[in-house]
């Protein structure tokens, strides 16, 4: 019995060698040879170089990184950077407005443990309130935003809580819950922007909305009673001020009218007395100059004043010059004029 021939072991073909064999076969089929390799290499090089062309949209900023380090910031338009892996480009949205809620919790466990305590703040008059607000922000400088802070949303949240606590901490509770909510929101926005600029966060705070400011649930009923009592006090004060504003002007007007009437009466009486005094002095001077004439004139004036209202006239016929006077008795009643007879 003869021995069977020995078989040589088969060596495994590496993937690189297999790819090289396949490329060589394709080139041989297309009859390109070395010139084909150069053409393919040129096309690959051209594609690699052209991969550095990029476009920045109007709502973006282009951040060019060279080996992971910031190189430049490109505005909107068509630009070029060295191809990968030398340079890469990041295109963050700088006009997109992000929204952050303060005072809300994301899980039941956190709400039960730290949710209420995180929302509680101390006011300027040492009262405790719970405040919720919403912060709207966007990217102002993409380079600072990407490389100066590691967690932008958490940084904004911490800075916003600090700013809100500081503003509420110097404001009385009555102002916080009533007429100064918009002012508190504006002050919080300005202070938050200052904190972020100090940290070079590259973030612009566009708006802060103060949504809810209430006392803790454990004391809200008592606080509402106090608020109602203060409202009643304010209403009573307003009513009293309205009554005072109504009564006091009228009283002042009456006092001014009485004063003016008294001054007018004083002037009238004074003028009358002065006139009577002057008339008496005039009569006295006339009497001194001509006693008989003045005395007779005074007598006649007095008699005229007395007799002009009398209904009877007595004539002394024995007097001088009285013989030609004919007595006449009117037929009508004394004091009434005669009426003519009415004829048809």
Structure, described:
52% of the residues lie in helices and 16% in strands. It is of the alpha+beta class and 344 residues long. A hairpin with a 2-residue loop joins strand 2 and strand 3. The protein has helices at 15-30, 33-50, 108-119, 142-147, 152-169, 173-177, 181-198, 220-289, 291-307, and strands at 53-56, 62-66, 69-74, 77-80, 87-90, 98-102, 120-122, 128-139, 203-214. Among the domains are: 16-50; 54-91, no CATH class; 98-215, Tetrahydropterin Synthase, Chain A (2-Layer Sandwich), CATH 3.30.479.30. The longest helix is centred in the C-terminal third of the chain and has 70 residues, at 220-289. The strands form 3 sheets. Strands 6, 7, 8 and 9 form a 4-stranded antiparallel beta sheet that branches. Strands 3-2-5 form a 3-stranded antiparallel beta sheet, with no helix packed on it. A two-stranded antiparallel ribbon has the order 1-4. The protein starts with 14 loop residues before the first helix and ends in a 37-residue tail after the last helix. The protein contains 9 helices and 9 strands.
Low-confidence stretches: 4-8, 105-113, 340-344
Helix-strand sequence: HHEEEEEEHEEHHHHEHH
Number of strand segments: 9
Strand content: 15-25%
Mean pLDDT: 76
Largest sheet report: 4 strands, antiparallel
Radius of gyration: 58 Å
Gap between N and C termini, in Å? 194 Å
The count of helical stretches stands at 9
According to CATH, the homologous superfamily of the domain at 98-215 is Band 7 domain
Subunit structure: HflC and HflK may interact to form a multimeric complex.
InterPro entries: Band7/mec-2_domain, Band_7, Band_7/SPFH_dom_sf, HflK
Function: HflC and HflK could encode or regulate a protease.
Domain Band: 51-227
